[in-house]
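Reviewer 2 asked us to include a model.

Predict the structure of this chain.
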Amino acid sequence: VIEVPGFGESIAIHPVGNLAMAWDHRAFDGAYAAGFLSRVKLILETRDWSSEV
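Predicted model (structure tokens):
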């Protein structure tokens, strides 16, 4: 449910995807992997993909 100015609350449908990663824990720790996934998530959410097509 989202708030729409002038109309009140509304149900919104958004595309959703799962992002996962597997790695060798001996190579680097989970904090590094979490930072990498956070950066990928940020890029996917903020980039203007319509201009790329």
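The chain has one helix and two strands. Residues 19 and 37 are 8 Å apart (CA to CA). We have added this to the supplementary material.
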